[in-house]
Input
Amino acid sequence: MLSAINLNRSWSDYKKQWVVPFAFCLLAFPWGAIASPLLVVMVYYIPCIYYREGKALTLKDALGFLGENFSRILIAGVLQAVVMSIGFLLLLVPGMLLSFATPLIISRIVNTDKSGVECVKGGIKEFFGGLKTKRMWVFVLIQIIIGALVSLASVITCGLGSFVAIPLGAFSIYGYMSQNNLGNKPNNILPSS
Output
């Protein structure tokens, strides 16, 4: 299963693209609580867009995507945060499960023209529907492993490693999704297998 996470490919893809996620990480710090979450979340959108387009993005491309999809990203982000908060209040486990739907929601925003609300509803529905399959549980486990590795790299380097570890983790998740045909089709994000 760990061989399913192709770190060589993710690292290679990250090296082609490292400037844009790094710029969003740096831009996030001085802008305070309002703009920081939006700038940091773009670190997760960039790999998804990269795998959709098949080419490295420029900062102009990423900012253009943000501008064109600002309301969808904002609505989906706020709705996902509210839903996850309610889930965490309901004995922690529902919130944790809902957090694993985030890559599917981001993939829906990147790959469809649906509203932010529809993307959140569709991503959550797809996730919980997919929990009946081994494929979805493998996807959850991969997210846990990548999250643990990102956290470890960040802690060991006193936070400095997060500038590389977080975007590399995002490239690993979306690289896995791309390689396993997860998130590439707007209407069938996680086909049953």
